[in-house]
């Protein structure tokens, strides 16, 4: 069974709901006093200073159509700072993990962001809104930057994009309009793998913008995106 959320193209399946219920059930048993924020509507307060941020299926459209590029994303926030991130890509049998200050790993092996230094050689991932008018603006941004990079990839799940930056499958990633559950775990994993992750004005990733890239590419790509007015797309 498939429902919609923000628009007719923003889908949620029974599996999204079942996955979140399973994760929340485990958290309720193991960490009953912690806060929880989940994509499918859960916003439970807590008393411990720990908040779990859960996306039960990031990339629901990919999941629904049988494409690769969906994942389960869970982050632990302690006193307002993301401290632990886990992203599980079941089709590829990959589990990406990070603990702040202790590096990033894929299936237990250390991973590192790309060593690419030339923006013209960079493979860049991005995503698009489900709102038709915003998609048009984002396509216009893409048209302004695509000639300055090697190529663009649109995989359909922010957590997968960020983990792809973390392990060097893409050189960089940007997107506007993410929610906390979209980027919480993946941003930490990318950061711990050596990438810079932030917005276009020097702050942390947020709804307005998330950009992830190695230090050698970050400022150049940010300048391209600012010039393309990506923050308003």
Structure description:
The protein has 233 residues and is α+β, with helices and mostly antiparallel strands. It folds into 2 domains: 2-110, Fructose-1,6-Bisphosphatase, subunit A, domain 1 (Fructose-1,6-Bisphosphatase, Chain A, domain 1), CATH 3.30.540.10; 119-232, D-Maltodextrin-Binding Protein, domain 2 (3-Layer(aba) Sandwich). 31% of the residues lie in helices and 29% in strands. It has 6 helices and 15 strands. Helix 4 runs parallel beside helix 5 (180-192). GO terms for molecular function: inositol monophosphate 1-phosphatase activity; metal ion binding. It catalyses: a myo-inositol phosphate + H2O = myo-inositol + phosphate. Its cofactor is Mg(2+).
**Portion in beta strands:** 25-35%
- Could you name the CATH topology of the largest domain? D-Maltodextrin-Binding Protein, domain 2
What is Rg? 17 Å
Structural class: alpha+beta
Number of helices: 6
Shape: globular
The total strand number stands at: 15
Order of helices and strands: EEHEEEHEEEEEEHEHEHEEH
Distance between the ends = 32 Å
Low-confidence stretches: 1-11
CATH architecture descriptor name of the largest domain: 3-Layer(aba) Sandwich
Q: How many separate structural domains?
A: 2
- Mean pLDDT, nearest integer? 92
CATH class of the largest domain: Alpha Beta
Give the fraction of residues assigned to helices.
25-40%
How are the strands of the biggest sheet laid out side by side? 4-3-5-6-7-8-9-10
Major beta sheet summary: 8 strands, mixed
């Amino acid at each position: 069974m498939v429902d919609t959320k923000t628009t007719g193209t923003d889908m949620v399946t029974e599996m999204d709901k079942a996955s979140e219920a399973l994760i929340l059930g485990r958290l309720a048993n193991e960490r009953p006093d912690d806060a929880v924020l989940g994509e499918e509507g859960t916003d439970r307060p807590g008393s411990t200073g720990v908040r779990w941020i859960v996306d039960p299926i990031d990339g629901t459209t990919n999941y629904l159509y049988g494409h690769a590029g969906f994942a389960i994303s869970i982050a632990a926030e302690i006193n307002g700072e993301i401290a632990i991130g886990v992203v599980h890509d079941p089709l590829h049998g990959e589990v990406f993990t990070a603990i702040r200050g202790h590096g990033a790993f894929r299936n237990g092996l250390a991973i590192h962001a790309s060593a690419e230094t030339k923006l013209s050689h960079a493979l860049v991932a991005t995503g698009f809104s489900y709102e038709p008018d915003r998609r048009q603006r984002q396509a216009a941004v893409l048209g302004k930057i695509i000639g300055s990079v090697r190529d663009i990839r649109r995989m359909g799940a922010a957590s997968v994009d960020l983990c792809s930056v973390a392990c060097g499958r893409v050189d960089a990633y940007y997107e506007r309009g993410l929610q906390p559950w979209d980027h919480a775990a993946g941003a930490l994993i990318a950061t711990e793998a050596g990438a810079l992750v932030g917005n276009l004005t020097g702050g942390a990733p947020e709804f307005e913008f998330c950009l992830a890239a190695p230090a050698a590419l970050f400022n150049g790509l940010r300048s391209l995106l600012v010039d393309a007015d990506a923050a308003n797309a």
